[in-house]
C-alpha cells in the first residue's frame, strides 16, 4: 500500500510539474506573440481590412437604398447605413495606422482616436432602438413625440461628458479620471444593452401576438429577435472587457502589445455584429412610398 501511495504521489508530482512547465511555456509564447511586430501588424492590419470591408458593404447598401427610393430623403434606414459606413471607415483608418496611433506621445489623442468610434457605434445602433421604440409606441397607441428628443438628448449628454473628460485629460493626465472615462464607457454600453433588451423584447413579444397568418410576421420576428440578440451580446462583451481593462493592465485595449486581445475584442464587439446586422437588415424598401419609412426631420 505504501508503494502504491508513493507511486500515486510521484505521478501526481510529475503531472503537476508538467502542467506548470506547460503554463510557463504558454506564457512565454503569449509574451513573444504580444511583443512581435509581425503579430502586431498582422492583427491590426486584419482588423483594418475587416472594418474597411464592412464599411464598403454599408456604403453599397446605402447607395442601393438611395437609388431605390430617392424621393424619401434621409430615412432612419439611410442614416443607419451612413453611420455604419463612417464608424467602420474611421476604425479601418485607425488600425491601418496603428503604429502611429498607439505610440502617440500625448495619451489623450490616442484615447480620442480609439474611443470616439465606440461612441459613434453606440449612436448608430441605438438608432435602431429609437426606430423600434417608435414602432412599438405607434402599435400601442402611445405618444411618440418625446422619443426622438430623448435619443438626441441622451447622445448629446454622452458626447458632452466624454469631451469634457478628454479636455481634462489633455490638461492633466490623471489616472483616476482615465479610470472614470472607462467606467463611463461601460455605463454607456449598458444603456445600449438595456435599450435593446427593453424595446427589442417588447417589439418581439408584440409581434408574436399578431395572428400567424399576418403578412411578414415571421420575417419581422426573425429580424427583431436576431438583431436584439446580436446587439445585446456585443454590448455585453463591451461592458465586461472594458470593465476588466479599467482595473487590469493585462487586459488593456489601448496598447500596441496586446494584438490578439484587440483582434478578438473588436471582432466580437463590433465587426461581426455590424456584418450580421447589415446582413439581417439587407432588404431594400419598396419602391412605392410607404408609411414605414419616414424621413428624419
Could you walk me through the main structural features you see in this protein, from its secondary elements to its overall organization?
The protein has a domain at 106-281. Helix content is 80%, strand content 0%. It has helices at 2-35, 37-68, 76-96, 98-102, 107-139, 147-171, 175-208, 217-247, 259-280. The model has no long low-confidence stretch (mean pLDDT 87). 26% of the residues are buried. The longest helix has 34 residues, at 2-35. Helix 5 (107-139) packs antiparallel against helix 6 (147-171) and helix 8 (217-247) packs antiparallel against helix 9. By secondary structure, the protein is an all-alpha fold. It has 9 helices and no strands. The protein starts with a helix and ends in a 17-residue tail after the last helix.
Main attributes of the structure:
297 residues
Give a brief outline of the structure.
The chain is mostly helical and 297 residues long.
Q: What does the radius of gyration come to?
A: 24 Å
Give the averaged pLDDT, no decimals: 87
Share of helix among residues?
over 70%
The main β sheet shows up as:
none
Keywords: Membrane, Transmembrane, Transmembrane helix
Main location: membrane
Pfam families: THH1_TOM1-3_dom
Protein name: THH1/TOM1/TOM3 domain-containing protein
Task: Walk me through the topology.
Elements: H1 2-35, H2 37-68, H3 76-96, H4 98-102, H5 107-139, H6 147-171, H7 175-208, H8 217-247, H9 259-280
Transmembrane segments: 44-65, 85-104, 116-137, 149-171, 183-205, 226-247, 263-281
InterPro entries: THH1/TOM1/TOM3, THH1/TOM1/TOM3_dom
Membrane topology: Multi-pass membrane protein
Amino acid at each position: 500500500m505504501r508503494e502504491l501511495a508513493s507511486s500515486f504521489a510521484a505521478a501526481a508530482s510529475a503531472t503537476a510539474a508538467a502542467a506548470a512547465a506547460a503554463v510557463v511555456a504558454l506564457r512565454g509564447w503569449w509574451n513573444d506573440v504580444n511583443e512581435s511586430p509581425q503579430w502586431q501588424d498582422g492583427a491590426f492590419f486584419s482588423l483594418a481590412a475587416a472594418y474597411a470591408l464592412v464599411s464598403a458593404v454599408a456604403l453599397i447598401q446605402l447607395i442601393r437604398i438611395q437609388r431605390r427610393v430617392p424621393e424619401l430623403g434621409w430615412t432612419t434606414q439611410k442614416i443607419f447605413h451612413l453611420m455604419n459606413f463612417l464608424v467602420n471607415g474611421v476604425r479601418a483608418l485607425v488600425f491601418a495606422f496603428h503604429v502611429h496611433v498607439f505610440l502617440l506621445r500625448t495619451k489623450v489623442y490616442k484615447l480620442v482616436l480609439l474611443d470616439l468610434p465606440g461612441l459613434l457605434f453606440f449612436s448608430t445602433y441605438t438608432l435602431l432602438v429609437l426606430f423600434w421604440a417608435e414602432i412599438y409606441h405607434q402599435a400601442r397607441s402611445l405618444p411618440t413625440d418625446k422619443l426622438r428628443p430623448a435619443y438626441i438628448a441622451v447622445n448629446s449628454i454622452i458626447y458632452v461628458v466624454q469631451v469634457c473628460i478628454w479636455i481634462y485629460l489633455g490638461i492633466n493626465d490623471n489616472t483616476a479620471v482615465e479610470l472614470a472615462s472607462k467606467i463611463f464607457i461601460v455605463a454607456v454600453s449598458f444603456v445600449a444593452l438595456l435599450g435593446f433588451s427593453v424595446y427589442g423584447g417588447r417589439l418581439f413579444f408584440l409581434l408574436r401576438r399578431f395572428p400567424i397568418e399576418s403578412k411578414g410576421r415571421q420575417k419581422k420576428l426573425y429580424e427583431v429577435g436576431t438583431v436584439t440578440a446580436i446587439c445585446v451580446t456585443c454590448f455585453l462583451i463591451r461592458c465586461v472587457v472594458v470593465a476588466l481593462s479599467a482595473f487590469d493592465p493585462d487586459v488593456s485595449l489601448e496598447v500596441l502589445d496586446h494584438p490578439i486581445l484587440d483582434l478578438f475584442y473588436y471582432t466580437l464587439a463590433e465587426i461581426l455584429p455590424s456584418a450580421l446586422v447589415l446582413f439581417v437588415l439587407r432588404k431594400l424598401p419598396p419602391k412605392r412610398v410607404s408609411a414605414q419609412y419616414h424621413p428624419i426631420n
